[in-house]
Specification:
Elements (H helix, E strand, L loop, with lengths): L9 E5 L6 E6 L5 E4 L5 E5 L9 E5 L3
């Protein structure tokens, strides 16, 4: 397993054109991420089936 020193799990939101980071959602390790036209971010979180079912989480732009 490769570990990146200083790298935090989370969702990074920014520009693919210039590499700038606009926002960071800390503390999650999503399987998939999407966003809508309003700036809301959705992440699909999977876990061991013994712990809980898969979860879709939403963050609202403020």
């Amino acid at each position: 397993m490769l570990v990146n020193a200083g790298w935090k799990n989370g969702v990074r939101i920014g520009s693919a054109k210039d590499g700038s980071l606009w926002a960071f959602i800390d503390g999650i390790n999503p399987e998939g991420v999407g966003a809508d036209d309003l700036g809301n971010v959705f992440a699909g979180l999977t876990r061991s089936p013994r712990l809980s079912p898969p979860l879709l989480q939403k963050w609202v732009k403020q």
